[in-house]
């Protein structure tokens, strides 16, 4: 005996009620529960759908689906950072390392030039872009997810990971500590300028890789592997 | 795994080994296969299986594919190239572990 469409729908609602709001996670759990229920029906066809579901859910232990969601979130972040790191390393190998070094040198030159005139013309726009852009991206993605939820009724944990840049958005909260630069118009020592230039270029590269390399790559992979994710 | 914590460290190896033999599998199928192979002796719990699968996927050892089966979607797992290589390493590690444990538990006296 197989589950009907309405019973499958009930299973989706069941996972939703048990705090799994992400469609990609729900799908795997629904199939698992459905398989379990069907196996029970093979052994005992008189078991009701509700009772069979209760038995299957118990197998997930006291934490219910909690562990699955938590581990899935961690795993998605890990996948995301593994890809970022893979691409990031590429910028330290020939030929791309030439571009990396050139960018650091160019930035340092611009920074030193602005320092000579006791201005923050380079520092302020840099910080604004580096810390503002991830937030702009997050808001843009948040709106996209909300629109998709309205259109399809589905929310994807996968999209949530992408929108938060694998947690990078929260790291950017540190921007608040950088206000010191806004007030400090003294000429920086060379070492500070060099460190700042390296950090600015590397963080910029990290954001670029996350938004323009890893995000589209993951979306395409997801679309290839999942027939439901057809809005790339 | 409900029946023994001793099996816990070998869960990843069990999953990799099964996928190595079966091309692609879904979560429920893995639990049933283990149950059948061990004649019900080993029971992989759902709460341990999915986190393990997701972790292996994040490490790049597994690839996924979602397909419509009957009236629902099913997520299949299969080994990547790295996953196939890692299976060999993990199986060797496990064999070494079993050998060491046997030497400890049943020492041969000359």
Automatic annotation (TrEMBL), chain A:
Keywords: Membrane, Transmembrane, Transmembrane helix. The chain crosses the membrane at residues 90-108, 120-139, 160-182, 194-214. This is Uncharacterized protein.
TrEMBL record, chain B:
It comes from the Bacteria. Transmembrane segments: none annotated. The lineage of its organism: Bacteria, Pseudomonadati, Bacteroidota, Flavobacteriia, Flavobacteriales. Pfam families: PadR. This is Helix-turn-helix transcriptional regulator. InterPro entries: Metal_resp_DNA-bind_regulator, Tscrpt_reg_PadR_N. It comes from Winogradskyella luteola. Residues 15-86 form the Transcription regulator PadR N-terminal domain.
């Amino acid at each position: 005996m197989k589950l009907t469409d309405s019973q499958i729908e009930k299973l989706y609602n069941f996972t939703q009620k048990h705090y799994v709001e992400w469609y990609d996670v729900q799908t795997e759990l629904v199939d698992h529960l459905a398989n379990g229920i069907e196996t029970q029906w093979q052994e005992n066809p008189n078991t009701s759908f509700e009772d069979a579901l209760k038995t299957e859910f118990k197998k997930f232990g006291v934490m219910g689906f909690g562990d699955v969601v938590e581990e899935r979130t961690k795993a998605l972040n890990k996948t995301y950072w593994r890809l970022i790191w893979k691409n990031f390393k590429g910028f330290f190998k020939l030929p791309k390392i030439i571009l990396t070094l050139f960018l650091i040198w160019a930035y340092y030159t611009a920074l030193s030039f602005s320092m000579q005139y006791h201005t923050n013309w380079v520092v302020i726009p840099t910080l604004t872009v580096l810390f503002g852009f991830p937030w702009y991206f997050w808001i843009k993605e948040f709106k996209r997810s909300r629109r998709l939820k309205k259109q399809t009724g589905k929310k994807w944990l996968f999209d949530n990971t992408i929108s938060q840049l694998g947690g990078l958005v929260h790291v950017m909260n540190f921007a608040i500590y950088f206000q010191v630069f806004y007030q400090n118009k003294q000429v920086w020592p060379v070492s500070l300028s060099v460190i700042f230039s390296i950090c600015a270029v590397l963080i910029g590269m990290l954001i670029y890789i996350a938004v323009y390399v890893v995000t589209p790559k993951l979306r395409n992979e997801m679309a290839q592997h999942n027939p439901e994710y057809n809005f790339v | 795994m409900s029946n023994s914590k001793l099996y816990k460290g070998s869960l990843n190896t069990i999953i990799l080994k099964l996928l190595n033999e079966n091309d692609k599998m879904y979560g429920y199928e893995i639990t049933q296969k283990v149950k059948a192979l061990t004649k019900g002796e080993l029971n992989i719990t759902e709460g341990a299986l999915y986190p393990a699968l997701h972790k292996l996927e994040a490490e790049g050892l597994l690839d996924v594919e979602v397909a419509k089966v009957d009236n629902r979607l099913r997520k299949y797992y299969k080994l990547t190239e790295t996953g196939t290589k890692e299976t060999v390493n993990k199986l060797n590690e496990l064999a070494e572990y079993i050998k060491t444990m046997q030497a400890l538990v049943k020492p041969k006296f000359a």
